[in-house]
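Bumping with the actual sequence this time:
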Amino acid sequence: MRTISWREGKITLLDQTALPHTVQELEVVDYRELIGAIKRLAVRGAPALGVAGAYGVALILQSAAKEKWSLDRIDSAIAELREARPTAVNLAWGVDQMKSIVPQGFAKVLARAEEIASEDARANRAMGKHGADFLIKKYGERKLRILTHCNTGALATTEWGTALGVVRELANRAWELSEAKISYRLLPDGAAASALFAGLVDAVLIGADRITRNGDTANKIGSLGVAVAASQVNVPFLVVAPESTIDRSLETGAEIEIEFRSDAEVTHFAGVATAPVGTRTYNPAFDVTPVRYISAIVTEKRVYEMGNGTTL
């Protein structure tokens, strides 16, 4: 499954807001359309946002060449794209990867964006292997019950997945790369702690939108509650994310800017009100899990076992 690509002068996105009922693609020809798609969550997941940021700069330069933009307008458009979602560091990272080569023109920027997309796919496979090695070393060759939270599969990346990529790797090893399906159950966020305390979970795997130097991790809201519950029952809690998600400019999670979403995302479902008119909400898109609740951070390079003052 390819969630984002460049085709014939357009960014093609798998529209995640239409799932699971409809599988449809968006063709984006203007950087403001891309920003809108990012903000309304048509494309989401830290690695996917990194690739979107890189392709977005190429899109900006393509428009600039056609419409004879000034350098100031180019810089302004790039800055606007970079800030579309503040918590997810990969979006800014993807844009920043392009900055030094912008003066070299559209072709160079597009080539680098394509490289970043390919690198993401390779990094996902490597994370899957490292995470699987870690869990097999701990539990041996047996079936595992894994709890994952939020968007960590192919939809969050270019094609494979972060935390769910580890699950794929484990399944592949167990079944010698056969086409056997991975069995799963869907549970509401509020049931996660109960499942952990009932002994139904062997390990928790999540992705990340930003990881600070000490290992504190921002991920989809609800991750913190799962981490605390896992720590209470001594279940390993692993963060699976590419090295590009590690923001070493920030020392701790207290420095991470948390994005808040609109009241309507809580008070309405599919356009239908589910709460009284005028209801105000507390709706952060992310929370920060302190490193003390994290067993290990898995990247494409290695497994960082956290504890005893480990820094990234």
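The tokens above came from a reply further down the thread. The chain has nine helices and 14 strands.
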